[in-house]
Give the backbone structure.
Amino acid sequence: MAKSKSEETPLMQQHNAIKTKYPDAVLLFRVGDFYETFNEDAVIASRVLGIVLTKRANGSASYVDLAGFPHHALDTYLHKLVKAGHRVAVCDQLEDPKTVKGIVKRGVTEMVTPGVAVNDKLLENSSNNFLAAVHFGATATGVAFLDISTGEFVVAQGNEEYIEKLLQSFKPAEVVFARPQQKHFKQVFGSRFYTYTLEEWIFTTQYAQETLLKHFGTHSLKGFGVDDMQEAHIAAGATLHYLRDTEHPHLQHITGMQRLEQDDFLWMDRFTVRNLELLNSSVENGHTLLQVLDNTVSPMGARLLKRWLVFPLRDIQQINERLDVVEYFIRETDLAKGLQQHLKQAGDLERLVSKIPLKKINPREVMQLAKSLQQVAAIQELLATTDNAYLQRLHAQLDPCPAILERILEQVTETPPVQAIKGGVIREGIHPELDKLRLIASSGKEYLLRIQQQESEATGIPSLKVAFNNVFGYYLEVTNAHRNKVPTNWIRKQTLANAERYITPELKEYEEKITGAEEKILTLEIQLFDDLLLALQEYIVPVQQNAQAMARMDCLLCFAANALQYKYRRPLLTEDHTLDIRDGRHPVIERGLPAGEAYVANDILLDQETQQIIILTGPNMSGKSALLRQTALITLMAHMGSFVPASAATIGLTDKIFTRVGASDNLSGGESTFMVEMNETASIINNITPRSLVILDEIGRGTSTYDGISIAWSIVEYLHDMTEHRPKTLFATHYHELNELENKHGRVKNFHITNMESGNKVIFLRKLAPGGSRHSFGIHVARMAGMPPALVERANEVLGTLEEKHIEAPLQKNVKQIAPSAAKVQLSIFDAHSDTFKEIRDMLEHVDINRLTPVEALLKLSEIKQLLK
Ligand SMILES: Nc1ncnc2c1ncn2[C@@H]1O[C@H](COP(=O)(O)OP(=O)(O)OP(=O)(O)O)[C@@H](O)[C@H]1O
């Protein structure tokens, strides 16, 4: 039965009133030294935190569930709740209970959600923690990414595919959007993100503009260069609204918005980011490109490297600037080492500075900030004479902020406590009043020691000692053996098993003096520390600029170190369309090879004149996929401004890399795997440009062999015939039939990966050679994989029989199976002179691929099949 309000205790009434404002958050309710949770929150807290669930009387009527933990354990428990996917509202006592009669005023001082976290325990050093807001407008979708822990604020707008790719690249910890758009959001982006919905009125132009202008204190947003992005504005306004809503009013460290423009970066769609295993591996414990490239020494550098990886550059000049610095560092090894040393010691300047306005920076971190600024000064000195233009610019961007640096070093003690409330933060000689009080406190303590000595002598109790506890302050402790020597004017306060504790008027008098002074010291120290933090606010922008410059330096030093350690070479970026890689290697696989095993390097040449499309065949496990991917990865690394795993590489500027991998059966999600494969491939066709690199790995394998061959065949033809684009394409396949294409299309070239047969074993040579290959050696792979010998033998037998039956060329072999009755006429459906081919060609000519849906494509395919019957 529902209780009437009056039956509940005042505390619970207060709790419930606050809880109604934060219905979907776990409310941590401060009661004295504890944070308590009640009712359903208590059930969650006890389950997630492993703390005891108890019951507590709630007025005359009933009981409530209760689970709590000591207030000093907040950090530990808070992050566990948030990591478990809960939103947490921290409700504190807003008054000093000592000064209040009755119930203390309480209020939520902070909401922590996965996307709004500043606590070190919730953050990963090498990753940003972005909150994203998405707004689906009538003609475009806007997105904003905001990391409250670093102050970064990025906005973009475009079509849904672009926004999805950005979401995948930024990996926000939380995405907010308007409540009515819930269904649409799910349709477009699935349920991969932690989401939260907000009221629709927040997502309006006017409100967003007001919010942004108010935050930045400007009259227009012109200065940010984001004028024309209305939907992005709305998303940006929503992120700021959400931060305020979660009790984060102090956001001075969010000093600007950065516009992200699709055309500024080499575009990789989400399939490509996934297929190339840039950030995540497809197998458990597998390595990613990020892991092998990341040898940065600072968290700021690590975060920036991730950004560079998913947003490689597309401007030759900017790429060359980075490459020049890498080359410079390789030459100037001493300078590089020195810079790295200083960066290592600089800590996470970016996150430190963000804690200032949020009032989360503790005294020890302020000291760390000063030490980081000292490193900035050292780096500045090292770079003072550099003749590299890019480094000169970074040098100019550095500012060790000497005034505030000096102030911190002068005022803060060498090793201050983590919590300002512990005292001992401010040095002697900074504030006369503080010094005076400290003298009183310390001389008071000496006086107490004197009392101990005096009383000990007067009473003849040698073991007499003065001590302190929170219950009755300073006391004299006498062991039982000397109890009879205690003077009558001492007041007994406590009896222990082997001792008794007393107070005296004199003791109390001094106690008051000391504790009074100690309290005043603490208040003064906190005030002085707050003044210092206030002064630090003025330095947010220069410190952030230091952090950005240092992050860049760190990434470029990391490229130089990688180049030296792993023998990477400088790529040559050109404006033309040739991709010419000599002795290319796969940067991830080569690092995982067993000791003593060398990666076999290969050359790849693709251009638009003679070798636009390579059809790559070779046995299973020979290294086709590796070669395909390394080509994409080398191209990508070059556009990041990194040296590449090759002896030389000339790389025509690339605007898009597409990779598609034939659907494997473990894909889930309801759609047919073939459909997924076709959907993915169709989106390439519609987005190709002359500067695109297309990597197709066994496309068409998700369906029956004949369908697969036909589709693969027509894709290659289509790419070949896109005369105004001519995208450079690598196509790995098991369908040897595709080798026929070389004879029919001038810019298609066959290559295979060599192997050697020795007895009935295959030795992989992994060397690329011109020409197609005939077998796929699947049975050898089956043997290598440890299939029972009898099974392997039988497979060989079956293969022999099949091969005997179809001794014709592989392509003709398949055609015969397709149309046995018409073998004479249709030596090959792909024979350009056959009637069927002409019919198919006519049919295809009338198809507008840009408008064809996947289902229509399948129907077309089925029509084509009918023609073959
Ligand atoms: N050039 C190389 N040098 C050394 N090892 C290599 C090389 N290329 C590939 N490998 C090794 O061989 C393994 C198989 O390569 P990959 O997956 O590229 O073969 P594949 O031809 O694509 O096989 P499948 O056709 O079965 O998909 C890789 O995991 C890698 O360990």
Notes: The domain at 131-264 is CATH 3.30.420.110 (Nucleotidyltransferase; domain 5). The chain has five domains: 5-112, 131-264, 295-401+539-566, 432-533, 567-677+684-774. The first helix runs from residue 10 to 21.
